[in-house]
Amino acid sequence: MKRLLNSAKTILLATAFSFGSLAMAAEHTLTISSWAPPGHGINAQMWPNLIKMIEEATDGKVTAEIKYGLAPPPAQMDLVLDGAADMTVIFHGYQAGRFTATKLIELPGYEGNAETASVAYWRVHEQLLADANEHRGVKLIGLHTHGPAQLHSDKAVAGLADIEGMKVRVPGGVGSDVVAALGGTGIKVPAPKVYETLASKAADGVVMPFESRGGFKLTEVAKNVYEVPGGLYRGSFAYLMNQDAFDALPEDLQKALEEKVFGEPASRMAGKVWDEIDAKGREVTGTTEGNAINAASEADLAAYQPIADGIIEKVLSEVSDKGIDGQAARAMIIKEMSAN
Asked: What CATH number is given to the structural domain containing 192?
């Protein structure tokens, strides 16, 4: 017994020494502002994964810590722009009028998961969308999408026609365009407010990816999912960093982050995590009593196509007004997603 206790002490001391060495090695600690709940995949997986990537790329010299409640979701970019936090993730649709080119990845009709979409998104941004300069003032370090968005409601939706007249929580961006085109009344609130919006009956439903079934506890307040293959749209996110905070890092660490973490690696990781949490959301729906997934009929899919085409045409026109070749960008997204 004494030998076992001594062995246990040795292991604990070794573990403590290991963590202590890592903490001592960190010369720069970045502050992450997060607006999602602590248990959400963004905080439970994405940020920890990104922190690990940063630490590995810099041999532990750069790390980061998550802080909550620094600002509401729509204010995150300005928070980082002003230097009140070093890093954050934003949802583009929360800031009406600020982003247009980012709506291209949100369009309905893309085939593929969040990982392939996120990689395609970064590549298309670098080649065609960056000229819009919509993230000016901050350093863009990653882009990603959530999985295909569906309609979640407490009352079962049997078809597209049922959506007309519904009050639906929308995220902004293409998600809002879709609900309007389907005859619904959009109620724009950020994701952390969705549960209370549905629980109070201020909205009849919400358009979000499957992840939200668990991440925002929709299994309790929206027991039915109306599922359209490929989704009604996708959502667009960006990882941002304060430019001064990046510039303050030694050049060798900047280079390591640029080469090994920022850009496509971070984008791919985030998309991959979203696929995982979407799968968990679908699973929890199937195992929660009273919850159901109602698949769109072939007739509904046919009826949705001209609606989707109209939204695509509208967004391409908006993007063209920004001096971006929207047709070329959309074609590149499709090509990149099919290749990954």
From this structure: 3.40.190.170
